[in-house]
Amino acid sequence: MSTLRIYNSFSRKKQIFYPITPGKVSLYVCGITAYDYCHLGHARLMIVFDIVQRWLRINNYDVTYVRNITDIDDKIIACAKKNNESIKTLTSRFIKAAQEDSLLLHIQPPDYQPCATNYIPQILKMIEKLIFNGLAYQNNNGKINGDVNYSVRNFLNYGKLSGRLISSNFNKINEKNNFKKDPLDFALWKVSKNNDPYEIRWNSKWGAGRPGWHIECSAMSCYLLGSHFDIHGGGQDLKFPHHENEIAQSEGAYKHKFVNYWMHSGFVKINNKKMSKSFGNFCTIRDLLKKYNPEVIRFFILRSHYRSTINYSEIYLNYAKKSLIRLYLAIKDIPKINYKKIIDLNEPHAKRFIIAMNDDFNTPVAISILFDLANIINKNKSIKMAKQLRGLGNWLGLLEYSSDEFLKNNIYTERKKNVNYSENDIKLKIYFRSEARKRKNFLEADKIRQELVNNGIILEDMPNGKTEWRRI
């Protein structure tokens, strides 16, 4: 195989991937905060790093993949209070929902899905290390208990991931917060307030309380993967401050490099504004699955490079559906198979596919190669190429249904008001399409084909140049 290169957000360039331990890869990804149903932005993050771990395994790496779950933070507490339910009841419901959504989207489960509340001892141990190393402090303002905060200015080169280096403007003490010596500092341990429920109070030498958000990921990743591991991933919005703070905590505690490669997926936007629960402009995975096959959603996400911004629109999802229909029509005579046994790695399309994926997981180019294969299959009905198409698609978590199942459930839903085309009408449409292709007006030709598909008529271009049709 060609050499795998990954865009490292830290160095801001593509780098050849060298694992710390030859043949093994440690991967940590920041997952969901369990207080609501997952939206399309979460789907993108999970699908992107599902592709990453799949491709690493295809490259014969022994992968340990960890994707955490935040099950305690301010949003969760506020939501539980609003719903008048326990935090455990709330988080359990949405963790289960997220796992159900992931399964439908063909997302393979990580090796570990740690919840923060199960790692309190590891969190407390890391906080102790930071205090001992002079990077954290408890400011109790004369009281017995008090928050523990990270002293940002005491960590050399804070901001090196995001490029937001400390400036001389941050000199004034935040007088409104008695628990911070500096406005840059952030909480490692939050002492419980009188009205906090007992289920979010854990004992510590600094007083009963709960962990801050940032320390959770540092403690879990270092415990499960070691204090120095290969790849850390997450959404673009986590680069600062979350991942910046993870570096400060982990390197501050263990006094060596934390992560070799940082990967960040791009935003999903609606009307050029980031999709977010806080903005109220999100669509849940569950709502989308009521309208679209899971592979359509997966295909829509993979048609864009993982670092790019996606603009959500039902127009684009409908286009993704039509594109998938084209691929399934090309392999309609090929049964579901074990792709590992049938992909010819020396075949030119497979070679190009591998080069694309090894170039920072370039799924748009990889998918374009699938359509090149489909075009060949439509012309010469090559069984070998059809097997290549299904096998390479499976590498991306696509084309995993039988063709009959997918086409039956999706072509019919594509139809608008049925037009009862006569045989002569169909032949006339085929003639117009043929003339459009001769003029190289492929957009018009595809439009005619799709019009017929929408009304239950499938066209098949034969090797002899003729076009046959059938009703479904």
From TrEMBL:
It is an enzyme of class 6 (ligase). GO terms for molecular function: ATP binding; cysteine-tRNA ligase activity; metal ion binding. Its cofactor is Zn(2+). Its EC number is 6.1.1.16. GO terms for biological process: cysteinyl-tRNA aminoacylation. It comes from the Eukaryota. Belongs to the class-I aminoacyl-tRNA synthetase family. This is Cysteine--tRNA ligase, cytoplasmic. The lineage of its organism: Eukaryota, Metazoa, Ecdysozoa, Arthropoda, Hexapoda.
